[in-house]
Structures are given as C-alpha cells and as structure tokens.
Amino acid sequence: MKRILIVLGVLAAGFAAVLVAAFLLIDAEDYREPITEYASEALGRKVTLGGIDLRVFPTPAVRVQSLSVAGHEAGAPALADVAELQLKIAVLPLFTGQVVLRAVELESPRIFIPFDENGDPILPTPAQGPDAAQSPGAQASAPAQGESESDPAKPALAIQNIRVRNADLQAGPYAFSGGKLDGRFSLGGSTALKFDLADVNYAQDEVKLSGPVRGDLKIGESFEINLDDAALVSGDSFRKPAGDRLRISGPLGQELSAGVLKEASIELGKNEFPLRLLLEAEPMEIHLTSTEIDLAALQPFLGQDTPRLRGGVAVKEFRVKLEPLSIVGTATLHSAGVDLEQGPVSVSGPLAARGTVLALQDASAKIGQNEIGVRGSYDLERGRSAFEFDAREHKIEDLIGFFAGDSKLLGAFAAGGKFRMSGDLDTLSGSGHFAITPGQLRGFSLVQELLGPLSEIPVLVAQVKGKDLSRYEQEDFENLSADYTIENGVLHTDNLVLNYRYATANLRGTVGLVDLALDLSGEVVLGDELAEELSGSKPRRRRVIPISSIAGTVDNPRLRLDRVQLTRVAASLAAEDRAREKLNEKLDGRLGRKLEEKLGPGAKEAVQGIFGRLLGGQPEESPPSEQAPEPPAAEEKKPE
Fold it and tell me: For 498, phi and psi rounded to 5 degrees?
C-alpha cells in the first residue's frame, strides 16, 4: 500500500510537470512514456495509461480515463484496473520538493491480488537491473551517510483528500465489492481513512464473513472497525448474525508496522474483551486483561445445539502465546454453566491456566439442588481432562435424572472418585466408591424376584401354601454400595452389595455408563426371618442362592437364576421340615421312651438338639421347670 501511494506521488510529480508544460502549450502526451516507464519499473509490472486530460482552472488537475497494472505473469488477471483517476495538484509545494495532492479520486477500481501455493499474497516488487545486488522482493538498502531519505526520485507525499467509489477487491479468501473510501494521507505525517465496504465476502477453512464492513482509522490516534451489519460464522461453534454488535477498536501508534497496534477492545453483544497485543514478539502474544464475561450474553453467538448458558467468568488476566500455544493466567467462575431440561448445572471456583492446561481447584459443581466438590484439569493441546469429585448426602434420582431424564433408583447418595477422559463419555476411566443408604428401586424387589421361581418348585409348593409372603417383597433396600473402576466408559466392580431387610445380594460385573446396561452375577443370601418362613424353623447356617446373571438396565434389571441350584435350595428347605417331623414322631413314641430308660431324663431333648443342628434348624426349648438334668455317665447304666 505504501509503495503504491509513493508511485501515485511520483505520478503526481510527473503530472505536475505536465501542468507546468501546459502553461507553455506543450503537448501532455509527450510525458506519457516516461511516466509509464517509471511506474512500471517501480511496481515491477507493466503500467498502461488511457487518455490524459489537463485542467488548469479552477484547480490544476489531471484526469486519466483508464489505468491498468498488469498481473504477475502472462495471462494472469490485471493487478488493477481503474476506470478513471483524477489528481488535483497543489503547484506551489512542488518548488519546495513536496508533492501535495489536494485530491485523489478513483472511480470503479478493480484490484486482484493472487496468492501462491503457500497462501501468501503475490505483491508487486520493483524491477531489478542486471547489476542489482538485491533479489526481487528484498527491501531497499538504507540511504548512505549524509544522503537524505527524501530522494528527488521519491518526493515527500501528502494527499489532502482521498476519494474512492465503487471499488472491488479479490485477494485470496478476501473479497468485497461496492467499496467506498474517504480520507487523507501523508508520509511521515497524519493519516486518516474512513471506509465503507458495502459487500464483503471472506471465506477460509470454516470461517466466513459476509455483509457490510465500516471503519475509521487515524494513524497515531485510534481505529474502529464496525461489523454490526455483517454476518460472521466459524464452523458450528460460533455465529454472529447480521445486526448483532461486533466492533473492534483501540489506539494506534504512529509507525506503519505491526507495532502500530498495541491494544484493542472487542465488543461482542454486551460483553467486552480488552486485549493487549504484542504482535512483533516471537512468538506473538495476546493478553486478555481484566474483564467480567456474561455467559448468557454469549448465547446468541454460539451453535444452535449449545445448551443455554448461565453465570459468569471474572478474568484477572490470560497471557496467550501462539505457535506453540501457551496460556498463563487466572479467572474465577461464578455459577458458570448451562440450563438443561431437568434444571441448571453450574460450576463455581478458581480457574488457573499454565501452558496448555486449564485447572479448576477446590471448586463446587451444582447439579439441580445437589452440590458436589470437584477438582479438575483440561489439556487444550491433547484434548484430555482429569478430575475428582466428592459427593455427600445427595439424591441419586436427581443426579441420574440429569443424564437419563428419569430415574427409578432413589436414595441418599454419597460417592467419590478420580477420573480421566479424552473425549466422549465412552473414554472415561478411573476409580472410586459409592453408597446409597437407604434407597429404593421402584418396580423391582429382589425377594420377589426370588420367591416367584422358588415357590413354584414342587417340593416347596405345599410348604408355602397358605402363607402370606408379600411382606417380604419390599422395593426399599437398606444399602447399595460398591468399590469400582471405570475403563472406556464401563464400570467394573467385584464387591457390589445390595442389602435388603430379608436378603442380601453380593454381585460382581459391569455397568455401562452410556447405556446403563447391566452385566452382573453373584449370589443372594436369605435373611434368617425369610429362611425360617420357608423352612419352618430357625436356620443354623446361611441359605445361599446363586444368581446366574442380572441383565437389562439400571432402571429395569432382569434377574436370571440357576434352576438346578434353586431346586437344591428348595429341597434343602423342604427336607429340614420333613425330617424334623419324622424325628419328632419317633421320639414321641417307642424310641423316645427307650432313650429315656437307657440314658435318663432329657435324653430325647438332647437328641432333638443335635439333629436340629445337623439340619440347620433349632429344637423347641422345653420350659425351665421341665428341663431334665444331664443324663448319667455311661458306666453307671449301659444302654442296650
């Protein structure tokens, strides 16, 4: 841009000479060839001028009916085509070595800047002579000692009024049409430009910008770019509709270099992002300084599938280095989260960044009305997260409800664990412990699942006939707990305990965290009260029923029992009762009388006790007044 303006200055100097010649009635066409030769050499491209008209009054001016700058290679589109160029020249400054253009007006300029295979623009470079030491595109050497930078071949240039109308630009992914530009320019002095680009189109990768862009720029003072009426989209994650506020502004330095831009402020909706820019640093740095971010106000600019945001982030400072990425800084989350269908989920606590890792320390996550202590970190470069949590006395139905929509599992929940994840939930790994005490699984009763198949076995049909077993069929449990590990989104446990009042299940297996699918097996231990109800006597040993599998889901488990093992348990329960009845019949008859005769009083009760223990039951105790003394020693009275 600077080189082009210098060329315009040289053109103006040449045209100024033409004006002086006009006073002497010299034909201006005589100056066409030297002007085009100099411009062609300065740009390294062939420059072609159309008809030249001179005007002396009221202000000396030159009008070129067409101007063309050739493309970078044969057959390439022209770098620039201008329908009309007007230069209004101040004559007197020419005598002091200054070129002052009262006005530069371009009508319908068409500019095309191609890009190379590396994505860099192919710009004009000065033509090099055969003896030149510089390569094409190398910068000119500094002036020798004592030599003025204001070489006569490069006169000082000032443009009091720049006016461009109906401009079109195509430069790689950048394009606009119908552009307008007004301003002033001065080498080493003040420069101010105001532009209005009616229809800008930019598309590269997933970023697209379309619509009008307006701006105001004053070198040494400030700048502002107004994108309110333009639409900006970046993939599926960001979208700014036309009509929403987006402005970039800040102070400008005096020098035309990357260092001219040191600070900027981005206004997006109701939020403002103040930036400190170190564009000349290696690597480049961008600092986000102190600000309060309203997450809800960002909602209109996020993807359509993004849940509704809530809360805010108080940024102290984030210092970002690019290539390679590195972030250092701190912020505080204030109930930052999303509103789900079941209720809000938010996080509060300090956030720190170091390198590529964001870390959350001693924070709290709120899910519905449940608050959980959390710590965690996220690696921006690797896309991995690690976190730990501690939950106490929460409602398990609320927690499951957020992920499954509804929960048949109810109860007071306490848990803790440490986890890692590198993407979706199926990449979750870690370990922990949980307990629900007490709780309920609506629609499922472990005892009911057992009694149904057990009571249908023939050896127990008569025994349970007429008995009301419904009081044992409870959905409420006393405790559900397990230690577990998680690998690839699947929970593994070897000690899951589901404890009801009348039975306890000891299980092992897996639970899917994505689909909540169950794949468990183990055993059920009948409680004493239930075992006595089924066998007719108090048990002396555990009654264990193997469980082949528990399938289905957490909300809808399906129990499958081993029929062979179940039959053995049923036969054992029934055999106890039948054997005890037969023994009592014998002991109440002749056998009992012989035992009393041979062993003395109490012998019958002693035999009942021994046999009852062998069967797993317990004999009926005699009243204290009827208890007999121990039988005499064998040598005093031998039994037959």
Answer: -115, 110
Contacts of 142 (CB under 8 A, 6+ apart): none
Helix extents (H) in 215-338: none
3-state secondary structure 382-433: CCEEEEEEEEEEEEHHHHHHHHHCCCCEEEEEEEEEEEEECCCHHHCEEEEE
Q: Which amino acid would we find at residue 172?
A: G
For residues 294-332, one letter each, b for 16 or more C-beta atoms within 10 angstroms of the residue's C-beta and e for the rest, the string is ebeebeebbeeeeeebbbbbbbebbbbbeeeebbebebb
* Count of residues in the chain: 640
pLDDT single digits (tens) 376-403: 999 988 888 999 988 887 888 877 776 6
d(CA 273, CA 264): 8
Q: Where are the beta strands (DSSP E) in 143-173?
A: 156-171
Residues 6+ apart with CB under 8 A from 456: none
The string of pLDDT tens digits covering residues 306-315 is: 888 999 999 9
Q: Is 368 in contact with 402 (CB distance < 8 Å)?
A: yes
In angstroms, the CA 14 to CA 36 distance is 10
pTM for the full predicted model: 0.66
431 pairs with which residues across the strands? Answer: 418, 485
94 phi, psi to nearest 5 deg: -60, -30
* Radius of gyration of the CA atoms of the chain, in A: 46
Tell me the two tokens of residue 619. Answer: 């004999």
- The Cα–Cα gap between 160 and 186 comes to 8
* 508-544 tens-digit pLDDT: 999 988 788 999 999 989 888 887 777 767 766 777 8
**Is the pLDDT reported for residue 5 higher than 70?**
no
Backbone angles phi, psi at 505, to 5 degrees: -105, 130
Q: Kindly list the distances between the CA atom of residue 188 and the CA atoms of 115, 194, 282, 318, 590, in Å, as whole numbers in the listed order.
A: 30, 19, 27, 36, 133
Omega into 324 within 30° of 0, i.e. cis? yes
CA distances in angstroms from 249 to 276, 284, 288, 606, listed in the order given: 12, 20, 15, 102
Q: Which residues of 394-411 are buried (b: 16+ CB within 10 A; e: fewer)?
A: bbbbbbbbbebeebbbbb
pLDDT of residue 18: 59
- Report pLDDT for 371: 86
